[in-house]
Amino acid sequence: MKLLRNALLALGTLGLPLAACAQAPALTTFAVGTTTVTASALASNLATIWELVWGPDNFIWVTERSGRISRVNPATGQVLPLLTIADVTESNESGLLGMAIDATPTGQPAGTYGVFVVYNYTDQGTLKEKLVRYSYTNGTLSNPVVLLGNIVATTNHSGSRLLLLPDRTLLMTTGDALVASEAQSRTSLNGKILRLNFDGTIPANNPTAGSAIYTLGHRNPQGLVRLPDGRIYSSEHGPNNDDEINKIEAGRNYGWPNVEGFCDLPAEATFCTANNVREPLTVWTPTIAPAGLTYYDHPAIPGWRGSLLLAVLKDHKLTQLTLDAAGLTIPSRTDFLTGFGRLRAICVSPAGKVYIGTSNRDGRGNPAATDDRILTLENRAYVPTATRPATGFSFDIFPNPARRQATVQLSAPGGLLTLSDLLGRPVYAVRPTSSTATLDLAGLRPGTYLVQADGAAGRSTRKLVVE
């Protein structure tokens, strides 16, 4: 059966596969500092790519706005369709939107994932939006469960990105559905970032008891990312001015429609003071239509380390947003990768490659013959080196196995501690102020993790078992 299944997978491509283990032809190259980054096409002939997620199976998971969910082999470009959701309504900006994957759903065997998607559908002639969880096993998506539905929608301003948090809650962005005042209404789910448990219930520690609202005052947020240290950022479309990058904080108000961008007009300043408004970190006027947002911190492209990477629709570019040490300001913005049209989705592999989905068939672009495409950005000269403890640089973890917390004893103070899963995806980070640090493990799934210590003397890694 395994041989048969592998043969079927090899034949089941609807994209443009590349020869296995061969490098794709370079479409362009560009410099990031002293590093040459090569852009190539991984897969082609897709239609309005909306989401890219690096999956726990080391495949790229992709949504297309028409309703199709697929897995893409990052070595060959082979597109393996999983499901086309029958009740997706694609019209203008509406359709199948964000996706997130739970690699370890409660009570399920290894290799079974929870797959969350958000999409627009039609209910008795009215367009709406809902959040649905599927179960993935053995190449099949099944058992859809509606976690949240009946959200007011139009063909514009639906959001919607999903983000899974380590405490097994999720964030979901919603747009204002072209009714700007709804963004400030606490009885409406529009113009918000919502927080739910994985089963769709409302977390007991949400900002307002019994309410799914995590933040309010959003116009149309289309990017959402969490850094290893827990900071969360979003990208948001403005009207004809003030596209925004926001730092998301529980319970805060982000101003729309009373505030556009910064609190820099008298009426805006008054509203901001009275309503706990969090100003954006940076804005764009004229607007650029910011979309997918990710965080890059890999040695393959050193010039991007510690930065946000933003996929941009209207201005057809990839933008690097540097962060200060506290993550409270964006000191610089640098643009790359023009010439490929509208860019909407972005993800990073554990190997430090960046994958970008174009959105030129969304009715607002000028598609090339092979659009839409998944592009690979990589440093082809990068050779990973094995992680070895530096002489005189080590650390201990106790207890190990651990439950709610573990103590790290370093041989020298300072540096950075990063907790990652076995796929190399960071889930937690802390900068110790002394030679002893405490890791907060509450909310982490039981399993084996890697603790990496970086300091002036080098790098060292140890395994940590969480019970």
UniProtKB/TrEMBL annotation:
<feature type="domain" description="Secretion system C-terminal sorting">
    <location>
        <begin position="397"/>
        <end position="466"/>
    </location>
</feature>
<feature type="signal peptide">
    <location>
        <begin position="1"/>
        <end position="22"/>
    </location>
</feature>
<dbReference type="InterPro" id="IPR012938">
    <property type="entry name" value="Glc/Sorbosone_DH"/>
</dbReference>
<dbReference type="InterPro" id="IPR026444">
    <property type="entry name" value="Secre_tail"/>
</dbReference>
<dbReference type="Pfam" id="PF18962">
    <property type="entry name" value="Por_Secre_tail"/>
</dbReference>
<feature type="domain" description="Glucose/Sorbosone dehydrogenase">
    <location>
        <begin position="48"/>
        <end position="364"/>
    </location>
</feature>
<dbReference type="InterPro" id="IPR011041">
    <property type="entry name" value="Quinoprot_gluc/sorb_DH_b-prop"/>
</dbReference>
<dbReference type="InterPro" id="IPR011042">
    <property type="entry name" value="6-blade_b-propeller_TolB-like"/>
</dbReference>
<dbReference type="Pfam" id="PF07995">
    <property type="entry name" value="GSDH"/>
</dbReference>
<keyword id="KW-0732">Signal</keyword>
<protein>
    <submittedName>
        <fullName>Glucose/arabinose dehydrogenase</fullName>
    </submittedName>
</protein>
